[in-house]
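lol ok so funny story. i was supposed to be doing the assay writeup but got distracted and ended up predicting the structure for this chain instead. priorities right. anyway since i did it might as well share w the group, maybe its usefull for someone
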Amino acid sequence: MSAASRRFSVFLVPAADGRRWAEGVIRELAARYDAPPFEPHVTVYGGSYTEESELAPLCRTLADGATETGPITLRVTGLQVTEEYFRTLFVAFEEEPRLRRLHEMVKGAVANDSGYVFVPHLSLLYADMPLAAKEMAASTVSLDREEMRFDEVKIVAPDPVTGWSDARRWQTLFRVRLDGKDSQEVERCAR
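and the output, tada:
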């Protein structure tokens, strides 16, 4: 009998200034639209695993690549909305070669490619609502930056029962800083 498949994502986490701004916007929008708050991030990759040991090559790749990659600065192209729940309202970014390389490194380190389509963005709201309401929500956000800096990458798994819908129950399996400070894992990772 095979073990149940579990989901995971690799998140790129904003540095302190961008994180504070995004957390504030996410908190405000979540309260206003009765939506879940969540940690600000750019999803670099999403996939699945059955045994934690399957994540070991990915953890090693991220740890080894952290120093090489260094902090990543993404140029903001604006706010966007879509019909998709996980792309309700988000900050869109230009393509960035180092971020694309990070995505390709992650994809190369997983046993089974999930086919995840990489579109660099940082969500500010997850909600099921009409597109017009999403556009209205976007009009209330003051996007006061032309770029955002990211200095950490982490592997996150959703709750096995509630999935990604309950962000309070997301679990960090591994994290590594991209700025060379404390570039060792600070959370567990399968060996």
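The first helix runs from residue 16 to 32. Residues 183-187 have pLDDT under 50 and may be disordered.
back to the writeup now i swear
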